[in-house]
């Protein structure tokens, strides 16, 4: 590899095999994927909720159909036993057919619509069964409670309101079609009042749940930013940067595009801290982070990967682009305020024969530490380019 000074001079380095890799390269292998595995997966969390909700919903629906069948067998002389048994049997078969697809439905964008439609269908089945069994005097009329309760658990306010309105309308239909309506008016009024109260509770619970989910979503977003961002410099932290690097390597391979990486280290930073204090050192690191982010293009990725080590990922950038950017970055990091601070830059471009994030880091890191061994405040590139 060659080493270039900021004045454009160059010198031959030692053979690459004689240059020891820094601890940063060793840390990469064990820490690069930690961020992804430790992050809270909101999509997975929601999918699990819907899977469990739909499973419980189907179990309850099976319980309803079995209870209706048992009721029909215990009252064989009641009205319309064959049609009722046929209706609940078809419902039971439909539930059994749908059961194996619950996880797929829970992962689908149509899961809310599926639950909404099934809730309406369950209400219609309960209404029809109660109507055939004798109207509002049938014990099956109490099945109308379940659609409203189910909707209130998971559906949005609008869908809960529609389900509740449909249930009240279904009760009215059963009541109006009941030949003994005069005898059932008082009982029906009490039951309707209970359904209205349940509707209010379901709508209130749905609205409160929606607000809580919005708050949790914002909190998770804020926590995700904090978990991925270095508080002092505003750059990505170590784990988040290498997670992004893995993704960019895969993307570059798929699209057959170049990818380069800059590794940056503040020269003599320990001596600076010893001479000027850690507060001044923190100010230097903060300024460097701000400078790197301001100097970078919108699609570049800047990370703080060590105490005084930074990295800049350069998508779609070949070795020539990386050299130009490295020189610009090295010059921009020279402190003109207070004690003089400089930085060294090592850079490499992804090798198509060894296309891995680890290899790219190793090459750029090795170049960086070769620069450091020659006194710093230079840029260095891999000998491959």
Entry keywords:
10% strand; seven-stranded mixed sheet; disordered N terminus; single chain; elongated; 7 strands; Alpha-Beta Plaits; alpha+beta; 14 helices; 385 residues; 2 domains
Would you spell out the secondary-structure blueprint of this structure?
Blueprint: E1 2-5, E2 10-12, H1 23-31, H2 34-38, H3 42-74, H4 81-98, H5 102-107, H6 111-133, H7 145-154, H8 157-176, H9 181-228, H10 238-255, E3 259-266, H11 269-276, H12 278-295, E4 301-304, E5 309-315, H13 319-332, E6 343-349, H14 357-373, E7 378-381
Parallel strand pairs: 6-7
Antiparallel strand pairs: 1-2, 1-7, 3-5, 3-6, 4-5
Give a written overview of the molecule.
The protein is an alpha+beta fold and 385 residues long. 64% of the residues lie in helices and 10% in strands. It has helices at 23-31, 34-38, 42-74, 81-98, 102-107, 111-133, 145-154, 157-176, 181-228, 238-255, 269-276, 278-295, 319-332, 357-373; strands at 2-5, 10-12, 259-266, 301-304, 309-315, 343-349, 378-381. The protein has a 7-stranded mixed sheet, sandwiched between helices. The N and C termini lie close together (8 Å). 34% of the residues are buried.
Could you give a short description of this structure?
By secondary structure, the chain is α+β, with helices and mostly antiparallel strands.
User: What structural category arises from helix and sheet content?
Assistant: alpha+beta
Please give the order of strands in the largest beta sheet: 2-1-7-6-3-5-4
Give the averaged pLDDT, no decimals.
82
Largest sheet descriptor = 7 strands, mixed
- Rg over CA atoms: 34 Å
Q: Structurally, how many domains make up the residues?
A: 2
How much of the sequence is in beta strands?
A: 5-15%
Order of helices and strands: EEHHHHHHHHHHEHHEEHEHE
Low-confidence sequence ranges: 1-40, 378-385
- How many helices? The count is 14
Distance between the termini: 8 Å
Percentage of residues in helical conformation:
55-70%
From the spread of the alpha carbons, the general shape counts as: elongated
User: How many distinct beta strands?
Assistant: 7
